[in-house]
From TrEMBL:
Highest taxon of source: Eukaryota
SMART domains reported in the protein's UniProt record: LRR_TYP (SM00369)
Membrane topology, record value: Multi-pass membrane protein
Domain G-protein coupled receptors family 1 profile: start-end pairs: 448-694
Organism of derivation: Oryzias sinensis (Chinese medaka)
GO biological process: adenylate cyclase-activating G protein-coupled receptor signaling pathway; hormone-mediated signaling pathway
Subcellular location: Cell membrane
One Gene Ontology CC term in the entry: plasma membrane
Pfam families: 7tm_1, LRR_8
Protein name: G-protein coupled receptors family 1 profile domain-containing protein
Molecular function GO labels: G protein-coupled peptide receptor activity; protein-hormone receptor activity
Primary residence: membrane
Length: 776
């Protein structure tokens, strides 16, 4: 035992006469070289420790004189290359450790002659592997935290001459090339694990390796599999080809013993009907994170033992359920286009599910204090109860017996995402209190904001000043909040009692995205307009106190444009990023996305800053107003109105801000029911309060509406008079026409008589003239 000394070399003839020595420990020294002949005469040596030294190469010539050696460690040295036939004379060697070196290359026949080798470790850690029946293990492991190996290539026929090898592991080495025939003709090989071969783009030829049971090739660039892969590996039980670039799959019909198939993170686009035909033992199938868009109708019908299926993060729009009755675990999350509902009867044994939408879980779990049975069955019971009056008693009893004999759930099902108040199963708005509140606020918001817009922009008594323009624009954007509430109320009425049937389509519809945009845009733009109005009031009143005319400053126009642009810029990113939303079409921050959380926190802080700025501006204004001359009544009324808007909106913003921070910090202070009430009843409340404050407490509004009403009435009265005059005129015209007709008849007769008399007089005059002529 010579370990833990300061030896720098092994003397040439130091051990020549130790013929019976069986164990030699030279570890933990500074040995940099072992010359040839150093171990001559050690014919009985069985164990040799040369680890934790400064060796830069394998002492092949010195080791050739140890025919009885069974275990040797060269770990923790500086060896960079393992040459050909380095251990060819060690036919009895069982264990060889080369871990924690700096190996970058190995000769093609570097392990030639190791016929008895059972464990070969070239790892960052000493791995103890135990198996029965003559374990043969080859392990290459790389860990970034230690001085480990950096094997870059595995040549063709690298393991030829090791027919007893049963296990080969490669872990995260910078492998750039792997010979296609590197693992051929290994009849005893049971496990092959090749991880991190980034430059491997072709599936290896495994001819002659028919005993392989576990094959793992991950992190490579394989694009296709040979059609004969199962013919070469008839005993394969586990196949892991994840993190490759496989685009199409061959038929695995010859892999009858296959139990686990892992193909996640590839580029598979389609599954044919014969892809998994004959896999009667397959229990686990992972096709997640592919580009799978089409599965043929009988794609899974030939898998009688399948109990775990992972199809998450694909592009599926439909899923055939034929042959999936044995499933206990199913993952479909990440398929945004898969909106079809799954009946519980199609998956009778399922225990754990992860689906794209929460509404698809309503058929598998209890929701809204209902039982665990499916919603179709509940609706069948309700329909049967409604029709009980028209059914005879025997028919009704038969119906109940058939219903009770139906399949009942005998086990609990874990399904995510879980339905809840924010994604309900039966009713979108839930309780009647919330439903009534949404209807009331939607109607109030639309009517009151419309009246404010009419009073400000269309009243003849209203002179549009900067403050009134801001109040009118604020009412306009607040009306958009009423549109959002009205849409929610209409969808709740349309899907009453069966929202789960339409929830997925509603959340992904254009109308839901548009309503989400309107709600957030109205909220943010309204806050910015109110901020500008508060600053404008302070500046205007200061100008009036100083005797200057406020007028229409340029910064007001620019600020109004900036409010709308900033509101749109804040609203669009969450929608474009696809943040999670509720059934109420409100974008919520994603807990798994740090950027989404950061954006939400920034928005809450920015809104709080706006309220703080308005509050400080008004405090400063009121401190200075006590020394200034009183303003006119109209300006004072507008200033008080903006102050009331600031107070009410700030008061209503506090619970919303508290809800935002508690959800971001994951505090259990606010439950989902309370959050739903805040989102639907408190958040849109400023859109109702703002116009009511102007209409009820501002004398300008009453004057403007009265003037508008008078002008409307004046416009309506003449039109009625004209219509009445027209009606009367038409009656008089009809009477006049009748008289005219009679008079025309009489006049015609009169004219005829007159003409007849004229003709007689002319005739008489003519005869009298003729008589006078004859007389003369």
């Amino acid at each position: 035992m010579l370990q833990n000394n300061q030896l720098k070399s092994v003397p040439a003839e130091a051990f020549n006469n130790l013929h019976n020595l069986q164990s030699l420990r030279l570890d933990a020294n500074h040995i940099s070289g072992v010359p040839a002949g150093s171990f001559s005469g050690l014919r009985s040596l069985r164990h040799l420790w040369l680890d934790d030294n400064a060796l830069t190469e394998v002492p092949a010539e010195a080791l050739s004189e140890l025919p009885a050696l069974q275990a040797m460690t060269l770990a923790l040295n500086h060896i960079r290359h393992v040459p050909d036939h380095a251990f060819s004379a060690l036919g009895r060697l069982v264990v060889l450790h080369l871990n924690n070196n700096r190996i970058v290359s190995m000769g093609t026949n570097c392990f030639h002659g190791l016929h008895s080798l059972e464990t070969l470790i070239i790892c960052a850690f000493v791995i103890s592997v135990k198996q029965k029946h003559n374990l043969k293990t080859f392990c290459i492991f790389f860990s970034r935290g230690f001085h480990s190996n950096k094997i870059q290539s595995i040549p063709d026929h690298a393991f030829t001459g090791n027919p007893s090898l049963t296990t080969v592991f490669f872990y995260d080495n910078p492998i750039q090339s792997v010979g296609r025939t590197a693992f051929q003709n290994l009849p005893e090989l049971r496990t092959l694990s090749l991880n991190g071969a980034a430059e491997l783009n072709e599936f290896p030829d495994l001819t002659g390796t028919r005993s392989l049971e576990s094959l793992t090739i991950t992190g490579a660039r394989i694009t296709s599999l040979p059609t004969s892969v199962c013919e070469q590996l008839p005993n394969l039980q586990l196949l892991d080809l994840s993190y490759n670039q496989i685009q199409s799959l061959p038929s695995f019909s010859a892999c009858e013993s296959l139990q686990k198939l892992d193909l996640h993170h590839n580029e598979v686009e389609e599954l044919e009907e014969n892809t998994f035909t004959g896999l009667t033992s397959l229990r686990f199938l992972d096709l997640s994170w592919n580009r799978l868009s089409t599965v043929k109708p009988n794609g899974f019908s030939a898998l009688p033992a399948l109990n775990r299926l992972d199809l998450s993060s694909n592009q599926l729009s439909s899923l055939p359920l034929s042959g999936l009755q044995t499933l206990t675990h199913l993952r479909l999350a990440g398929n945004g286009q898969l909106m079809e509902l799954i009946a519980r009867e199609d998956l009778p044994r399922v225990r754990w599910m992860e689906l794209p939408y929460a509404f698809q879980c309503c058929a598998f779990i209890s929701c809204e204090r209902k039982g665990g049975s499916s919603w179709e069955k509940e609706e069948a019971v309700e329909a049967a109860g409604r029709d009980a009056a028209i059914l005879s008693k025997p028919d009704w009893e038969d119906f109940l017996m058939e219903f009770e004999d139906g399949p009942k759930p005998q086990h609990a099902v874990h399904c995510s995402p879980t339905p809840g108040p924010l994604r309900p199963c039966r009713h979108l708005l839930g309780s009647w209190m919330i439903r009534g509140g949404v209807w009331l606020m939607a109607g109030t918001s639309l009517i009151s904001n419309s009246l404010v817009v009419l009073a400000v922009f269309f009243s003849p008594a209203s002179l549009v000043t900067p403050t009134k323009l801001l109040i009118g624009l604020l009412a306009l954007v607040n009306g958009l909040m009423g549109v959002w509430g009205g849409w929610l109320a209409a969808v709740d009425a349309w899907t009453f009692g069966s929202f789960w049937r339409f929830g997925a389509k509603w959340e992904s519809s254009f109308l839901c995205h548009l309503s989400s945009f309107l709600c957030v845009f109205a909220s943010q733009t309204g806050l910015f307009l109110l901020t500008v109005a508060a600053l404008e009031r302070c500046v205007a009143m200061s100008s009036l106190s100083a005797g200057r005319s406020a007028g229409w400053p340029l910064w007001i126009r620019l600020s109004i444009c900036l409010c709308f642009l900033l509101g749109a810029a804040i609203t669009l990113p969450p929608l474009v990023a696809g943040n999670s939303s509720t059934s109420f079409c409100l974008p919520l921050p994603s807990v798994s996305s740090s950027s989404s959380l950061a954006f939400s926190v920034s928005m809450v802080l920015f809104d709080s800053l706006c309220f703080l700025l308005m509050t400080l501006a008004y405090i400063r204004f009121y401190c200075q107003s006590s020394k200034a001359a009183p303003a006119c009544d109209e300006e004072a009324a507008l200033t008080r109105h903006v102050a009331w808007l600031l107070f009410s909106d700030c008061l209503l913003y506090l619970p919303v801000a508290f809800l935002s921070f508690s959800s971001l910090l994951r505090l259990p202070a606010v439950g989902p029911e309370a959050a739903k009430a805040l989102l639907l009843l408190v958040a849109p409340l400023p859109a109702c309060v703002n116009p009511l404050l102007y209409l009820l407490f501002n004398p300008l509004a009453r004057a403007e509406l009265a003037s508008l009403a008078k002008r409307t009435c004046r416009g309506v009265a003449p039109s009625k008079l004209r219509r009445r005059a027209t009606a009367r005129g038409s009656t008089l015209d009809s009477d006049y026409d009748e008289d005219v007709e009679k008079q025309s008849c009489d006049s015609t007769q009169g004219l005829v008589a007159v003409e007849h008399l004229k003709e007689e007089e002319e005739w008489r005059g003519l005869h009298s003239a003729e008589a006078a002529g004859l007389h003369h």
